[in-house]
């Protein structure tokens, strides 16, 4: 009887230990760049370490860089939705038409130049106007890749007319439309191919954020880097998001949800934006140290570029209206919210 009593008394403890073990969750986190990229080493890894620590080891990550789970960049949202990955770094820019409200964030001269300003504006806009784009996901963060810089090999761009006929690498659809409106020729290619493309004369330069340039050695094949005036919206920006599978999030215990929520949202946005802005500043300094020239478009020429590129926004408004959205309102709100964070 003593033995039976002892076993019965120990049973809840054993069941409790088993339950605790069962609560340990490992999240599959996917992204499309290498493990040497700042996002991997300075955002995802420390973020995952904090989840592990805050949860007492019950919430862990397994990071899969460089599309190790298969598929393409455009397929990352589906990988999250279908549970191939629990979490993924995606961009609405790379999945044309899938996130229609978020496309307003890509329109020319809409968002602040810095990643922090752009990220705060994108988060604000998304919470108010674009959450329906992400109804299939748990949104962990939204942030900005910061404004593109126009880098050229031999021809400086000082006035809008200088862009005519220039073949520039474009990161996505709306930068391409911006360049076309100004008479340039967009060429889509991944960052890793930019340097070879310039050195072989396939392209004359590239549109990319500062932090990308030294990472792929664009500084070695370009001489000029062109920005707009300070405290004005950037040429174009790329919105990014960290999305989570809804069922996976819902399956977490309240305690693990609280850990994830605490480290996501605004804290994750601020961490990511700082990494991007620090990378941009370091890259800008590296370009100058290399002997490259940074040119700033004069105010009058900047306004002329805005006027010419206005056709891109007008076309988007028509497309948004055709989808049942109020394109004019969304574009106006994107501008208003972007202006709100210009000094960040």
Automatic annotation (TrEMBL):
Record's keyword terms, sorted: Signal
CDD domains xref list: PBP2_TRAP_Dctp3_4
Gene Ontology biological process: transmembrane transport
Gene3D superfamilies registered for this protein in UniProt: Bacterial extracellular solute-binding protein, family 7
Signal peptide (UniProt feature, chain positions): 1-22
Record-given protein name: C4-dicarboxylate transporter
Source organism (scientific name): Malikia granosa
């Amino acid at each position: 009887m003593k033995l039976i009593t002892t076993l019965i008394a120990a049973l809840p403890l054993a069941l409790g230990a088993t339950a605790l073990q069962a609560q340990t969750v490992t999240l599959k986190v996917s992204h499309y760049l290498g493990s040497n990229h700042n996002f991997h080493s300075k955002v995802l890894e420390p973020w995952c370490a904090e989840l592990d620590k805050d949860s007492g080891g019950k919430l862990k990550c397994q990071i899969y860089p460089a599309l190790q789970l298969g598929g393409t960049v455009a397929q990352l949202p589906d990988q999250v939705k279908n549970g191939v990955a629990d979490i993924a770094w995606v961009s609405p820019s790379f999945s044309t038409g899938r996130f229609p409200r978020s496309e307003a964030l890509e329109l020319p001269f809409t968002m602040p130049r810095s990643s922090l300003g752009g990220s705060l504006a994108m988060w604000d806009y998304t919470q108010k106007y674009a959450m329906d784009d992400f109804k299939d996901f748990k949104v962990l963060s939204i942030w900005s890749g910061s404004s593109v810089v126009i880098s050229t090999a031999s021809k400086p761009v000082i006035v809008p007319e200088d862009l005519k006929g220039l073949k520039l690498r474009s990161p996505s659809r709306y930068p391409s439309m911006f360049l076309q409106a100004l008479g340039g020729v967009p060429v889509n290619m991944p960052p890793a191919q930019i340097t070879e493309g310039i050195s072989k004369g396939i392209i004359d330069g590239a549109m990319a954020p500062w932090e990308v340039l030294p990472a792929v050695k664009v500084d070695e094949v370009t001489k000029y880097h062109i920005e707009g005036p300070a405290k004005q919206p950037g040429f174009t920006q790329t919105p990014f998001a960290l999305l989570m599978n809804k069922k996976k999030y819902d399956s977490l215990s309240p305690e693990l949800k609280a850990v994830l929520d605490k480290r996501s949202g605004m804290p994750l946005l601020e961490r990511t934006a700082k990494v991007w802005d620090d990378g941009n500043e370091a890259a800008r300094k590296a370009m100058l140290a290399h002997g490259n020239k940074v040119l700033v478009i004069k105010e009058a020429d900047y306004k002329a570029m805005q006027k010419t590129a206005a056709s891109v926004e007008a076309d988007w408004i028509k497309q948004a209206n055709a989808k049942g959205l109020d394109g004019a309102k969304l574009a106006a709100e994107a501008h208003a919210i972007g202006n709100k964070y210009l000094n960040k």
